Amino acid sequence: MEKIQIKDSKQHVGETVKIGAWVANKRSSGKIAFLQLRDGSAFFQGVVVKSEVEEEVFLLAKNLNQESSVWVTGTIQEDARSKFGYEIHVSSIELIGESHDYPITPKEHGTEFLMDNRHLWLRSSKQHAVMQVRNEIIRATYEFYNKEGFIKIDPPILTGTAAENTTDLFSTKYFDRDAYLTQSGQLYMEAGAMAFGKVFSFGPTFRAEKSKTRRHLIEFWMIEPEMAFMDQDESLEVQEKYVAYLVQSVLDNCSQSLDVLERDKTLLENYTKLPYPRVSYDEAITLLQDNGFDVKWGADFGSPEETFIARQFDRPVFILNYPKAIKPFYMKPHPDRPEIVLCADMIAPEGYGEIVGGSEREDHYDLLLEEIKKFGLTVADYEWYLDLRRYGSVPHSGFGLGLERTVTWIAGTEHIREAIPFPRLLNRIYP
Ligand code: 4AD
Ligand code: MG
């Protein structure tokens, strides 16, 4: 008898198969028991009819507790009434592991309780759907960059220098000296671009930010492409093509998960249409001021400002050329206006905020050295980075996409904590 996964039921209609599963839920009457089964790949229904199975099988089915694990044998059948479309007509059940008083019941639970039980909460159908979307975004990312001729380079996680700023670094001892957990692999990716042309990274990133919002994690995953011989405008084209590709891939391959999440697919379809609008920082300031925001040129945007700007469009929008003073040292100034930089943030619709940040990099040795000093950084720590401008410097651009922000937006979940299996938040490192 073949052992199958629930997600492959379609290929086994009419066959007798064996499935290892957990009992997510159950209801029964005197004559029939319906088991909501999950095996990690999907959820479907097991039907146990008293008159068709041995007495102890029906008794076992009736008394199974939530999250008990079982071997189920039966015949796969079509089930037009369920969204999944298939069910198993059970002939026998074997108990593997009992479960008593499973803490997460079908009733409503508070967020803190669910977060304390994150290791179990992951088993629920909504969390299953979010993780399917996350997995698809990961898969499509590798596919996209491979198709586009990038190679994956892995920057270090332990670093000796700050990549973005010096305020939200996690420090640790590196034997007898200080080191930091990476904030961004970008500087190393620039070395990668000079060695391999078009590169991307995909790894964990750490920010000791004291932010407690629905968009901030302490530990998150970032995809950072870096491209030699590319200016900022060309980089924007890669960014929008990539993000549209992610949305399309989720639409194509996670339809059922989107249904579980009750995500509006027509909204998502809009997000695959290119190009994405481009608004300059200057225009954004005027737009905000005209609409009653008390914001002056030079200020950074918070979530109300970003959300307002995003509302003007039906798809993600780029905000271009922020003031130099609010951006990191490595961004290249605009050739005609040194007070702004060649950069952009991509703002997701529906209030999800910034999902991509990127820029053209300062490629001139003297100017970069000046910025490193102005920012109060130790030049000796950046000698290797300056080398990239000493030996055949070229124009280059890159960006970083936050995986969890993107998952939150595409899945349409409310808070970023559900977009990563075990979120690290300001007040939480358990479980
Ligand atoms: O805008 P950020 O800070 O840019 C960089 O780190 C650049 N070095 C990237 C590059 O050019 N290679 O971060 C990039 C993205 C943000 O747009 C956001 O999506 C995500 O990373 N991000 C966070 N996601 C979750 N929690 C946080 N605390 C985040 N901080 C940034
Ligand atoms: Mg940013």
Question: Brief description of this entry?
Answer:
The chain has helices at 55-63, 111-116, 118-121, 125-147, 186-196, 232-253, 255-260, 265-270, 281-290, 303-311, 365-374, 383-390, 403-411; strands spanning 2-3, 16-28, 32-38, 43-49, 69-78, 86-97, 151-152, 158-159, 171-174, 177-181, 198-206, 219-228, 278-280, 317-320, 343-348, 353-360, 396-402. The protein has 431 residues and is of the alpha+beta class. It is elongated.
Q: What is the overall shape?
A: elongated
The CA-CA distance between the termini, in Å, is 39 Å
Bound molecules: 4-amino-1,4-dioxobutan-2-aminium adenosine-5'-monophosphate, magnesium ion
Q: How many strand segments?
A: 17
Write the element-wise H/E pattern from the N-terminal end onward.
EEEEHEEHHHEEEEHEEHHHEHHEEEHHEH
Mean pLDDT: 97
- List the uncertain runs: none
Radius of gyration, rounded?
Answer: 26 Å
Structural class designation: alpha+beta
In what range is the share of β-strand residues? 25-35%
Tally the helices: what do you get? Answer: 13
- Main sheet? 8 strands, mixed
How do the strands line up in the largest sheet? 7-11-12-17-16-15-14-13
Share in helix: 25-40%
